[in-house]
UniProtKB/TrEMBL annotation:
<feature type="transmembrane region" description="Helical">
    <location>
        <begin position="189"/>
        <end position="212"/>
    </location>
</feature>
<feature type="transmembrane region" description="Helical">
    <location>
        <begin position="40"/>
        <end position="62"/>
    </location>
</feature>
<dbReference type="InterPro" id="IPR002656">
    <property type="entry name" value="Acyl_transf_3_dom"/>
</dbReference>
<protein>
    <submittedName>
        <fullName>Acyltransferase family protein</fullName>
    </submittedName>
</protein>
<comment type="similarity">
    <text>Belongs to the acyltransferase 3 family.</text>
</comment>
<feature type="domain" description="Acyltransferase 3">
    <location>
        <begin position="8"/>
        <end position="340"/>
    </location>
</feature>
<dbReference type="GO" id="GO:0009246">
    <property type="term" value="P:enterobacterial common antigen biosynthetic process"/>
</dbReference>
<dbReference type="Pfam" id="PF01757">
    <property type="entry name" value="Acyl_transf_3"/>
</dbReference>
<keyword id="KW-0472">Membrane</keyword>
<feature type="transmembrane region" description="Helical">
    <location>
        <begin position="129"/>
        <end position="148"/>
    </location>
</feature>
<keyword id="KW-1003">Cell membrane</keyword>
<feature type="transmembrane region" description="Helical">
    <location>
        <begin position="160"/>
        <end position="177"/>
    </location>
</feature>
<keyword id="KW-0812">Transmembrane</keyword>
<feature type="transmembrane region" description="Helical">
    <location>
        <begin position="7"/>
        <end position="28"/>
    </location>
</feature>
<dbReference type="GO" id="GO:0005886">
    <property type="term" value="C:plasma membrane"/>
</dbReference>
<keyword id="KW-0808">Transferase</keyword>
<keyword id="KW-0012">Acyltransferase</keyword>
Length: 363
């Protein structure tokens, strides 16, 4: 750990995840512009998009591992310190993206009253911009944290394994079977007994992060999850190809955050880097650790701003480009988007009032 008690593997996971999110959003453009699944650009975009799918679940796992272990003495203090900054960021960036979309993309002629009515509706129903859904999800979970933190701390390791096992069965495995049946028969499986709210949704990833951070699992289980993660990493683009060919258009069943392949990529990635914590600490000098810490601290702000940067500076991949052109274009654009986002965040954070309004006070 650094002197400020930051955990190196958590910082690295944050950096890898924000890079993966940028890759997801950039590569999605080409994937949705063509249904020719046998072109090199489509395959390159499919591959990079597939291997980046661990990012969102890992973000939830990181949040759970960090916040559920803290002691919450006051509900009011927790909501002011943790929930309010997220709400401020949500409102601010929803407004920014709404303005950009209406007046710069759509060239809207809305007057001020019409715009704010439209903005308020979009804010209430998550209709302002695509990537901001994450803030709605994390705010909803954070609202429950004062209770959930007490629940997980009162649970034994066995209790948590019980919860995670049933969450996996309902949210991951059952959904996988249901999706496969639907694609083969056009009929969803509907088993009412599986509708158990506590065992559904992103809360499972949240608690999974807490469990993996605080408890050591057997070596065989670690190896199994890491191997399944590697298998999932390479099988996701192939499975997406065949599902898309079968469907006639891009099929994102293996891209989903509850996809069985995404789950194994996420848990495998988390376990792998947790096991490397001591090695990372020993091999990295203090300056490298400080840089990693700086980028990690900015990851939330980068998440908020990167789509705007992408819209302003990125260049589209061509559907008829060759392997080298497509790969180089993707790497170049991701690097540019990430770099500009990071530098912009650091510059904006020089003013504490801007930091408070745009990022809820987070640096």
């Amino acid at each position: 750990m650094l002197k400020d008690k930051r955990v190196i593997f958590i910082d690295i996971l944050r950096i890898l995840s924000i890079l993966a999110v940028i890759i997801l959003h950039y590569s999605a453009d080409l994937l949705t512009r063509t249904n020719d699944f046998n072109t090199i650009p489509w395959w390159i975009s499919n591959f990079f998009n597939s291997i980046s799918r661990f990012a969102v679940p890992v973000f939830f796992m990181i949040s759970g591992s960090m916040i559920l272990r803290t002691e919450i003495k006051s509900y009011k203090q927790f909501y002011v310190k943790k929930v309010l900054p997220l709400i401020i960021s949500l409102v601010s960036w929803s407004f920014i993206y709404a303005v950009y979309n209406q007046y710069f993309v759509l060239k809207s002629s809305m007057n001020v009253f019409q715009f704010f009515a439209h903005f308020a509706y979009g804010l209430a129903f998550d209709r302002n911009y695509i990537h901001l859904w994450f803030l709605y999800a994390i705010i909803a979970i954070y609202i429950t944290v004062p209770l959930i933190s007490k629940l997980v701390k009162a649970c034994s390791e066995k209790d948590l394994r019980y919860y995670l096992f049933f969450w996996f069965l309902i949210s991951i495995f059952y959904k996988f079977i249901s999706d496969m049946v639907f694609r083969l028969t056009s009929e969803y499986i509907n088993i009412p007994i599986t509708n158990i709210p506590l065992f559904m949704g992103y809360l499972g990833y949240f608690i999974l992060g807490y469990y993996l951070y605080n408890f050591s699992i057997p070596l065989k289980a670690k190896n199994l999850f890491c191997n399944l993660g590697v298998i999932s990493l390479f099988s996701t683009p192939v499975a997406t190809y065949f599902a898309s060919v079968y469907n006639g258009t891009l099929d994102e069943v293996f891209y989903g955050n509850y996809s069985i392949t995404t789950f194994f990529m996420a848990i495998g990635t988390f376990i792998y880097f947790k096991e490397k914590e001591e090695t990372l600490h020993e091999r990295m000098n203090y300056k490298v650790q400080k840089l990693i810490s700086s980028i990690s601290k900015a990851s939330f702000s980068i998440y908020l701003i990167h789509v705007l940067v992408e819209l302003l500076v990125s260049r589209r991949s061509e559907v008829d480009a060759n392997l080298l052109q497509t790969t180089a274009n993707l790497i170049y654009n991701v690097a540019i988007i990430f770099s500009i986002s990071y530098v912009t965040v650091k510059l904006l954070n020089l003013n504490k009032y801007v930091t408070q309004v745009l990022f809820g006070g987070k640096s």
